[in-house]
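Tutorial handout. Part one gives the primary structure; part two gives the three-dimensional structure as tokens.
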Amino acid sequence: MASCSSGIGYKEYFNFFNQFDEGSSMVFVDGDITYSLQFRPAEFLALNHIKSDSEINADKISKTISDYEQGLNFCLRISSVKNEDILDLNTKDKGEYYGRIAMLNVDFPRLIAGISKKDTMRCQIHHYERTYKVQPFVQVLFNIKSNKENLPENVVFYDDIFNEGKKIEFKNFKEYYSNLPKLNI
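Part two.
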């Protein structure tokens, strides 16, 4: 897959985002909790969709990218600083544990938004992921209504789920975005 543009190959590109490599996410630590926000480009989502195909080529990648160009896609990973199960962290009982799961499934869209000087960009869709007893963190994949021409300056998460409504603000999103690698196709 040779090209005149600068960027990295599809395997390196996929792994950079899939493995949360250094620089692939914005990190905010508050007390016992680490929040990692990662922008998920349409190119990464396309590769994720076709990763099991027997043949991956530039044409297949390009055709699949258009399926993921509506809005801006993100992954918010929430974990314990001490690598403890985040759903159990500081809970009083199992009711609180299951309440957190319910909030991740139902309430998350009202807790997060992209912010710019002119606009508040709300979460359109979300999907909560958890590998019980294997990974001590949760991930929420979500999409905000915006585009590459109208990037948020900050992404704000009001953590009613784990941190008593604490405002978690990922600042300077545009700078982070501009430093992400490009896919060479």
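Part three, for discussion. Strands lie at 26-30, 33-39, 72-80, 112-115, 120-129, 138-144, 154-159, 166-170. The longest strand covers residues 120-129.
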